Amino acid sequence: MKLHAAARVLRRLAWALAGLCVVAGASAQTPSAAPTTQPDRVFTRARLTSTFDEGRDKPYVRLKLLPRAKIPFQVLTFRLKDRALIADIPVGATVEFLAEPIAGANTVTAIRQVPECKRFEVC
């Protein structure tokens, strides 16, 4: 009986030492410098299907994503950061947009009109 109790104590001690070694090794590493540049902004291609307002300062835009976007829904609704973003873009135009979560809503922060992709060519 005493052998089993001693073995358990040694086993627990070994685990505690192993844990301390892991913690000491992790704290001994020097932290890497935080990246000073922002990550690349990725624009998504879509077709502008419609725009509408919900209230005074809540403009929305509906964008039909291209088939290769690999998202289950093709037409998505986004809030617009500013109505002036789409002032010169006609409905039905092919666009590239950048969306970010702002105040709990997916918001288009940048949008630009681009030429339509030709079939079997890289856009």
Would you mind describing this structure in some detail?
This protein has 123 residues and is an alpha+beta fold. Helix content is 22%, strand content 33%. The chain contains 1 helix and 5 strands. The chain has one helix at residues 2-28; strands at 44-53, 59-65, 75-80, 94-102, 105-113. A hairpin with a 5-residue loop joins β1 (44-53) and β2.
**Number of DSSP-assigned strands:** 5
Read across the widest sheet, the strand sequence of neighbours is 1-2-3-5-4
Beta-strand level of the residues, as a percent range? 25-35%
- How many individual helices? 1
- Give, in order, the helices and strands: HEEEEE
Distance between the termini: 75 Å
The major sheet is characterized as: 5 strands, mixed, barrel
Quick synopsis:
The chain has 123 residues and is of the alpha+beta class.
Write the layout of secondary structure elements.
Layout: H1 2-28, E1 44-53, E2 59-65, E3 75-80, E4 94-102, E5 105-113
Parallel strand pairs: 3-5
Antiparallel strand pairs: 1-2, 1-4, 2-3, 4-5
